[in-house]
Amino acid sequence: MAQYGRTAYWDERYTKDSEPFDWYQRYDIHPEFAALIQKYIKKEDGILMAGCGVSRLSEEMWKDGYQSIVNIDISRVAIDHMESKYKENKAL
Q1: Which SS3 state, helix, strand or coil, does residue 73 take?
Q2: pLDDT (tens digit, 9 = 90+) per residue, 68-84?
Q3: Secondary structure (3-state) at 63
């Protein structure tokens, strides 16, 4: 059984595979998912993406006009990967 609450589990997972991964659905290709988010979250709201991992969700929401997104994760490997990926875009 996976140990989802353990930092070591996520560090190992993201070391082996840092490709974008979205647990639920893709914001940009599932309009019903985007509509649900848009219904409850205003574009000017501050958003905390807890457990962001290597998901595309923050990027896709940012492209849609959400500008105040903070991403956090227990995995330093995931954060380092995302910082490198978005080094040119300080908003992400």
Answers
A1: coil
A2: 999 999 999 999 999 99
A3: helix
What is the SS3 assignment for 71?
A: strand
Q: Name the residue type at position 47.
A: I
Tokens in use for 81?
A: 């990967």
DSSP string, 42-57: -TTS-EEEET-TT-SH
Residue 69 gets which letter from DSSP?
E
Instruction: List CB contacts of 21: < 8 A, sequence separation 6 or more.
Output: 53, 54, 55
CA dist., res. 15 & res. 77, Å (int) = 7
Asked if 49 and 58 count as a contact pair (C-beta separation under 8 A), the reply is yes
Chain centre to alpha carbon of residue 62: 11
Give the DSSP letter of residue 72: E
What's the pLDDT at 1?
Answer: 60
* DSSP H helical ranges for the chain: 7-16, 31-40, 57-63, 76-85
